[in-house]
């Protein structure tokens, strides 16, 4: 099914996030249920309506956010274990997701931007509705050298 915001393949994810992280591995992942997501990035169109989501588990959130500013891998492991990111890690995750807008933008797609990254329990209802209305979904297992792996899911209208 065609989506308004085309979903990336693994090569595109690796090319984009590979500019941020050394030793990045990306492969297709199995679909996970929403309960396994720890954080959700909400992307909005120019009119402010949610049009896409990027959900990640606590492992990706911890490992990616720690790796972005080269925090020690032990910090990421502790954050994943406690299921709590520091304020710096949350800000880093938001930056990763902001850069991730390029995963959904093409020369022919409408403009979108990152609205905000929410803990999964705090996603506003209008944004959460994107999962049910999505015309496309893609799941990835991502491994960051020295840090570990995690799961990322993109939903697009």
Structure summary:
The protein is an alpha+beta fold and 157 residues long. The chain has helices at residues 10-17, 58-68, 73-82, 87-99, 125-133, and strands at residues 24-28, 39-45, 50-56, 112-119, 136-144, 148-156.
Overview of the molecule:
- The chain is built from five helices and six strands; from the N terminus they run αβββαααβαββ.
- The radius of gyration is 14 Å and the shape is globular.
- A hairpin with a 4-residue loop joins β2 (39-45) and β3 (50-56).
- 32% of the residues lie in helices and 29% in strands.
- It has helices at 10-17, 58-68, 73-82, 87-99, 125-133, and strands spanning 24-28, 39-45, 50-56, 112-119, 136-144, 148-156.
- A six-stranded antiparallel sheet has the order 1-5-6-3-2-4, sandwiched between helices.
- By secondary structure, the chain is an alpha+beta fold.
- The model has no long low-confidence stretch (mean pLDDT 94).
- The chain has a single domain, classed as Chemotaxis protein chec (3-Layer(aba) Sandwich), CATH 3.40.1550.
Pick out its properties.
6 strands, 5 helices, 157 residues, six-stranded antiparallel β-sheet, globular, alpha+beta, Chemotaxis protein chec
Write the layout of secondary structure elements.
Elements: H1 10-17, E1 24-28, E2 39-45, E3 50-56, H2 58-68, H3 73-82, H4 87-99, E4 112-119, H5 125-133, E5 136-144, E6 148-156
Antiparallel strand pairs: 1-5, 2-3, 2-4, 3-6, 5-6
Helix pairs in contact: 2-3, 2-4
